[in-house]
Model the fold of this input.
Amino acid sequence: MSEFPLPLPPGGAQKPRQSAGRWRTVSALMLREMGSRYGRSPGGYLWAILEPIGMIIIMAVAFSLLLRSPSLGNSFILFYATGYVPFNLFIKISQTVAAGIRYSKPLLTYPAVSWIDAIFARALLNFLTNALVAVILFAMLIAVLDLQVVFRIGFVLEAFAMAFLMGLGIGMLNCVIMGFVPVWETIWGIITRPLFLASGVLIIYEDVPRTVQEILIWNPLLHISGIMRMGFYSTYAPQYISYPFVLFVALALVVFGMLLLRRHYRWLLQI
Done:
């Protein structure tokens, strides 16, 4: 009896398995980082909540002593929270993604773990953590201070998505740049300090002089903070916000960062 070779499964049949395997890898990397970052310190995830709350309270108290009322609404704490939360999300994601290859270097020697798994796991964990912190933070502020807020979740989700993309793109670029120029990590830390002021955390775009507006308008993070505040202040309708500009910058950073990492990640593993 003649033998016939068994038909090979179609290529598409392997994709669900590959996708499932990738998600298992990403999940394992996320659990590893959760254990290493929060599991070994007293309080664990509690510090992820207390840190932004403490920062917001300190800023609110300090500026309430200098000003009669915030630029929007009557609550200093809510005003600064709506500016600080998306900026903090951008900073946290960019920092952790920038160190993604260095942090996961021992695991990247295994064929099952790729550089994109390590990067995405760190970015996703930080996004979910900061989203949870934001929900708890705003719920506490609204309940404790008895604030009357017309919450528009669409704007909040848009701000979070854009801050995530910006942090992911900048983080991947910094990952490569820090590999070639180690001192860039220190330089970037210095750059982000004035960026805090230029991103609309403490003031809104409409409060600064015209000459300053012409410079700040090119900062995508300023647009993101404006979008975030539209989710909490129903009467706030800033005219300077440009969705196409923010999306173009964010997606361009992500694409360029991925191309650079794909080309140089093997070299980064050797340094």
About this structure: The CA atoms of residues 94 and 167 lie 4 Å apart. The first helix runs from residue 14 to 39. The two ends are 59 Å apart (CA to CA).
